């Protein structure tokens, strides 16, 4: 494989020295970019875009072409590819978000779920990883990802997005045995899926636990974190002669950083509700931290964006182990020039913290 020209993202995840704080952004290939909207229109719809390796590669590279400051590319895909490959029939309703033709509510439903083979059942994702990695040609590292078992389970049980997760939580409390069976099957599927991405060329992986923060402290440990630990334990950790770092991101997980830091992941993603300086004190030298600017700051003017970047960098302080990111994904209405101001500010203002 081609040598990396810019590896500061991987170095920061491993708490190795860097010249400036690396930066990337969740949903960096997204609807805020006119070039992305044009490619998506060409594909016809979102899933057609995900399932076309050439077009998925095209949109993955678009933000890198526009913003030379970006220190990583992230695979363009969706967290719900795994349940789709389990036969649930993913589709998107305009204005409603993702939906499944089949839902999972009973022990029989769970027993019937297959564990997808990454190359046979999710080959379009593996082909996208290989295509992107080839086209990157060592520019920056490529991040692979998956949803967490709990997050995937909520969509599968609810049949789509939910504000209160009442069916998922009812199953969790009424029939914990069934929920554990579902989560176990999902943990096996995600482990295999992420290992497939690593073998295809992903150089770091992120587990998106979008809905872990909806759980009580006790339920989070038992029904979300335990299964993410299981995945991390089963991942390929060395490939192409390098460590493959794992980032664990639980939105709303600021209360549980200490136990997340014991998961075996190299880094924790932080949303914008916790202070990165106090998070660093709490986790010590165990893990790197990724985050954590409020995505809404990007609606403000470039001077205000720069000030907030400066505040977060100062809160983290000196030394490596920080990957700058938003606390969640960029929103479609953001002015692309504001994203550019954000990336520039991170590199310009962070050099002073790396001696």
UniProtKB/TrEMBL annotation:
It comes from the Bacteria. Its EC number is 4.1.1.37. GO terms for molecular function: uroporphyrinogen decarboxylase activity. This is Uroporphyrinogen decarboxylase. NCBIfam families: hemE. Gene3D superfamilies: 3.20.20.210. Keywords: Cytoplasm, Decarboxylase, Lyase, Porphyrin biosynthesis. The keyword Cytoplasm applies. Homodimer. It catalyses: uroporphyrinogen III + 4 H(+) = coproporphyrinogen III + 4 CO2. Signal peptide: none annotated. Its main location: cytoplasm. The record marks 78 as: Transition state stabilizer. Pathway: Porphyrin-containing compound metabolism; protoporphyrin-IX biosynthesis; coproporphyrinogen-III from 5-aminolevulinate: step 4/4. Catalyzes the decarboxylation of four acetate groups of uroporphyrinogen-III to yield coproporphyrinogen-III. Residues 22-31, 143-159 form the Uroporphyrinogen decarboxylase (URO-D) domain. Belongs to the uroporphyrinogen decarboxylase family. InterPro entries: UROD/MetE-like_sf, Uroporphyrinogen_deCO2ase_HemE, Uroporphyrinogen_deCOase. It comes from Pseudomonas schmalbachii. Substrate binds at residues 27-31, 78, 155, 210, 328. CDD domains: URO-D. It is found in: Cytoplasm.
């Amino acid at each position: 494989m081609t040598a990396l020209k810019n590896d500061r993202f991987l170095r920061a995840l491993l708490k190795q020295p860097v010249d400036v704080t690396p930066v990337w952004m969740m949903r960096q290939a997204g609807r805020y970019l006119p070039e992305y909207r044009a490619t998506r229109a060409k594909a016809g719809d979102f899933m057609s875009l995900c399932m076309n390796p050439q077009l998925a590669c095209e949109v993955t590279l678009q933000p890198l072409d526009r913003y030379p400051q970006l220190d990583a590319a992230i695979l363009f895909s969706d967290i719900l590819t795994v349940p789709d490959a389990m036969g649930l029939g993913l589709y998107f309703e305009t204005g409603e978000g993702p939906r499944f033709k089949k839902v999972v509510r009973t022990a029989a439903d769970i027993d019937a779920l297959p564990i997808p083979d990454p190359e046979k059942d999710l080959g379009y994702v593996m082909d996208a990883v290989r295509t992107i990695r080839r086209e990157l040609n060592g520019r920056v590292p490529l991040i692979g990802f998956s949803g967490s078992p709990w997050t995937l389970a909520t969509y599968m049980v609810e049949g789509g997005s939910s504000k209160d997760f009442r069916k998922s939580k009812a199953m969790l409390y009424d029939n914990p045995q069934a929920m554990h069976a579902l989560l176990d099957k999902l943990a096996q599927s995600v482990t295999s899926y992420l290992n497939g991405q690593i073998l295809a060329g992903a150089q770091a992986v992120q587990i998106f636990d979008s809905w872990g923060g909806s759980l009580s402290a006790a339920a989070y440990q038992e029904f979300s974190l335990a299964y993410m630990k299981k995945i991390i334990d089963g991942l390929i950790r060395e490939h192409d002669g390098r460590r493959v770092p794992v980032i664990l991101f639980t939105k709303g997980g600021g209360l549980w950083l200490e136990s997340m830091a014991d998961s075996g992941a190299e880094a924790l993603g932080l949303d914008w509700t916790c202070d990165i300086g106090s998070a660093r004190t709490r986790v010590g030298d165990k893990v790197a931290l990724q985050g954590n600017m409020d995505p809404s700051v990007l609606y403000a003017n470039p001077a205000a964006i720069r000030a907030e970047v400066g505040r977060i960098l100062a809160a983290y302080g000196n030394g490596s182990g920080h990957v700058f990111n938003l606390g969640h994904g960029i929103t479609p209405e953001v002015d692309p020039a504001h994203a550019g101001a954000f990336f520039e500010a991170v590199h310009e203002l962070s050099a002073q913290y790396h001696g």
